[in-house]
């Protein structure tokens, strides 16, 4: 009996040992799985993580650096911080570059807390060489427009062609970027053209720009006008008799002397004229079309009491008689 009890106890101990061994094996795979998962994630990471810094260069600075690397220089005296409606506070940085390059030599970079705008004037590929950055202003440049009440950006820069007698004499170009009220800017090419067409000198001031973008009182142009480029050998004059409704009644007289003073003595003069002409007015432009002849003459009126005449079509006047140009009142 004693021997039987002893054998039962031995068998029971072996069973307990097997249960404990199985329990250990059941726990170990769960822990190993966690370790394997951690090792798998660590393997996917780069050996060395990039260093982070609170002073990391923002994209705005990268754009400035890119332009400077290309040879642009910051016009430090013309860097300003301005509040723009619907956009917020922006620092406006003009950059310029000398020499003949494919890219236009004047660029504006506008930087805000979370915003960057790069403005490059729209000009042809054959642009002149940059000479000097003259002025920048922030103003509602066209308060009579539908986008009134928003601050615009106006820039004046001087350029040279490097060709011909006046190649080293600078001339102005004007860039007007209108606040579009949607968080951006749009270059107003029509307004720029109006200003540039009215310039009587090679350069222009910001005060003149402000004057030239004002609405034009076309009805005030009744009177005598002369082409600003007239000489004693080439002259063209226009008399505007009446402006009523959409009709502009005028006469035009022009001449060209062949042979300078000797031509005057000999009466060797070619002439051209329009009697009782009527041009049709639309906004600040009036168009005259010759009857039965392919000839069109266009008046473009400006707010500084001048207007420009341009012609298209076949020759309408005598040989070498030209009337195109800017007209101002006769004294």
Could you tell me the strand content as a percent range?
Answer: 35-45%
Q: How many strand units?
A: 17
Helix content: 10-25%
Radius of gyration: 39 Å
Shape: globular
pLDDT averaged residue by residue: 83
As residue ranges, the low-confidence spans are 1-57
Global structural class: alpha+beta
**Spatial separation of the terminal alpha carbons:** 149 Å
Please indicate the count of domains: 2
Q: Quaternary status of these chains?
A: single chain
How many H/I helical runs?
Answer: 5
The largest sheet is:
8 strands, antiparallel, barrel
Question: What letter string, H or E per element, gives the SSE order?
Answer: HHEEEEEEEEEHHEEEHEEEEE
If strands are numbered along the chain, what order do they take across the biggest sheet? 10-11-12-13-14-15-16-17
Can you give a write-up of this model?
This protein is α+β, with helices and mostly antiparallel strands and 331 residues long. The protein folds into 2 domains: 59-212, no CATH class; 218-329, Lipocalin (Beta Barrel), CATH 2.40.128. 23% of the residues lie in helices and 37% in strands. The protein has helices spanning 2-44, 59-69, 189-197, 206-212, 260-266; strands at 73-74, 80-84, 88-96, 106-111, 116-119, 129-139, 152-160, 171-179, 185-187, 223-227, 234-244, 247-257, 269-282, 285-289, 295-301, 306-313, 325-329. The strands form 3 sheets. It has an 8-stranded antiparallel barrel. Strand 4 and strand 5 (116-119) form a beta hairpin. Residues 26-59 are annotated as: Disordered. It comes from Candidatus Cohnella colombiensis. Residues 26-41, 50-59 have a biased composition (Polar residues).
């Amino acid at each position: 009996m004693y021997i039987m009890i002893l054998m039962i106890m031995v068998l029971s101990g072996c069973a307990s040992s097997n249960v404990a061994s199985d329990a250990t094996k059941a726990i170990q795979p769960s822990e190993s799985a966690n370790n394997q998962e951690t090792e798998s994630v660590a393997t996917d990471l780069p050996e060395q993580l990039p260093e982070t810094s609170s002073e990391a260069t923002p994209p705005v600075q990268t754009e400035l650096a890119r332009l400077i690397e290309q040879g642009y220089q910051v016009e430090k005296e013309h860097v300003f911080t301005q509040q723009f409606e619907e956009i917020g506070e922006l620092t406006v940085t003009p950059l310029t570059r000398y020499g003949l390059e494919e890219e236009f030599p004047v660029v504006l970079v506008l930087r805000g807390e979370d915003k960057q705008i790069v403005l490059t004037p729209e000009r042809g590929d054959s642009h002149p060489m940059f000479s000097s950055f003259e002025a920048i202003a922030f103003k509602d440049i066209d308060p009579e427009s539908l986008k009134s009440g928003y601050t615009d950006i106006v820039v004046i820069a001087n350029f040279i062609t490097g060709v011909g007698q006046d190649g080293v004499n600078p001339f102005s170009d004007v860039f007007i970027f209108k606040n579009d009220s949607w968080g951006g800017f749009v270059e107003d090419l029509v307004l720029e053209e109006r200003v540039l067409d009215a310039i009587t000198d090679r350069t222009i001031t910001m005060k003149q720009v402000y004057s030239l973008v004002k609405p034009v009182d076309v009805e005030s142009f009744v009177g005598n006008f002369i082409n600003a480029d007239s000489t004693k050998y080439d002259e063209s004059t226009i008399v505007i008799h009446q402006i009523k409704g959409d009709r502009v009644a005028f006469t035009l007289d022009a001449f060209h002397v062949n042979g300078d003073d000797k031509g005057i003595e000999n009466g060797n003069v070619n002439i051209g004229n329009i009697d009782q002409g009527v041009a049709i007015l639309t906004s600040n432009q009036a168009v005259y079309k010759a009857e039965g002849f392919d000839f069109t003459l266009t008046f473009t009126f400006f707010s500084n009491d001048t207007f420009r005449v341009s012609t298209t079509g076949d020759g309408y006047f005598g040989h070498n008689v030209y009337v195109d140009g800017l007209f101002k009142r006769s004294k």
